[in-house]
Specification:
single chain; alpha+beta; Elongation Factor Tu (Ef-tu), domain 3; 3 domains; 29% helix
Amino acid sequence: MNAMKDLRKKMFRGYIPLAVLVVCLFVLGMCSQSKKERLEKEKKAAGKEVVHPVNVVIMEMKPREVKDQLSLPGTLAPFLTLVVSSETSGMILDKQVNVGDPVRKGQVLATIDGSKYKNAYNSARATYDNALSSKKRLESLYRSEITNKTELDAVTAQMENAMAAMKIAAIDLEKTVIKAPDSGIANRVHVEKGQFTDVGKPVVEIIRINPIKVNVGIPESDIHAVKDLKWFDVTVDALKGKTFRAERHSLSRTTSSLARVYDMELTLANPSGELLPDMFVRVNIVKKKLPGAFAVPLYAILSMGEKKFVVVAETSVQGKTDAPRDTASVREIETGVQDGWMVEVIKGLKTGDAVITVGQRSVSDGQKINVIRTQDEQEKLLR
């Protein structure tokens, strides 16, 4: 019996430290939880204290003209290209034009050795002179009734044949001097002095680049929008984006490729010669003008699925039109055509609205903002 009491006393003494440990852990847990809650509250309080208005740039909405236009790639080409070929054969005695030289109509480009053609002409001329003398003699005899009409007719035919042969020889001789059929610039010279050429061989390529031609393909979907247009703006990248005014020259009635585009040619004045063939250009075609429209920069628009939004700067003071715009308001819009960097807004904005163009991605609906600048010209915003 005493042994059992001693055992119970020992077990009780062993539970005391354990109970004390449990109580201590509970107290520590409560203290830790209280400290954690206190830190969370302090953190939230601190977070509220450091929220500052977001700096933004706005654009005030005013009615403006928006153009429904497209920009198509094109290339420059000579307005006229002439390949002057040799009409006879022989050795080149002289070349009187080099690549890049201006050429006048009728100017001598090259000369071919015409010795054999000169001899042929002299022979034909002698035959003609002899036949002409015979004809004159027989005409005198015929008037004196010494000869008959048959002999006169025969010698007349010989004279006419000799005259025809002489003219052909003269033409062949003339062909040895190659002349420019029109004015322009010598783009290529295919012969050199001492070189042999033959009939049909190219001698000089002449191009005319004032005016110069613009070749551009019009998509099938836009052909009806441009068929009645006469003037187009042409931008040349090689000249730092310089823009020229071009006039329509022709528009094909059939497509020329599997891409289903119609070939259009424009003419462009080029008195200074700064425009050169094969330069890349962009042809700006205005299909329709929309006066009194609202437009915002493309990058000011936010998208969520198929919906589009802008962030508008509004005042938090109701009833005061002169109060500062200090609150962001997300507004859904509907867009129309795109005119360069600007996009037409057909629903969702009105005159006087201030669309945030810089900082709109850093704010949420109802958040405080600080307008640091107001711009109403897209060109200034891009600087």
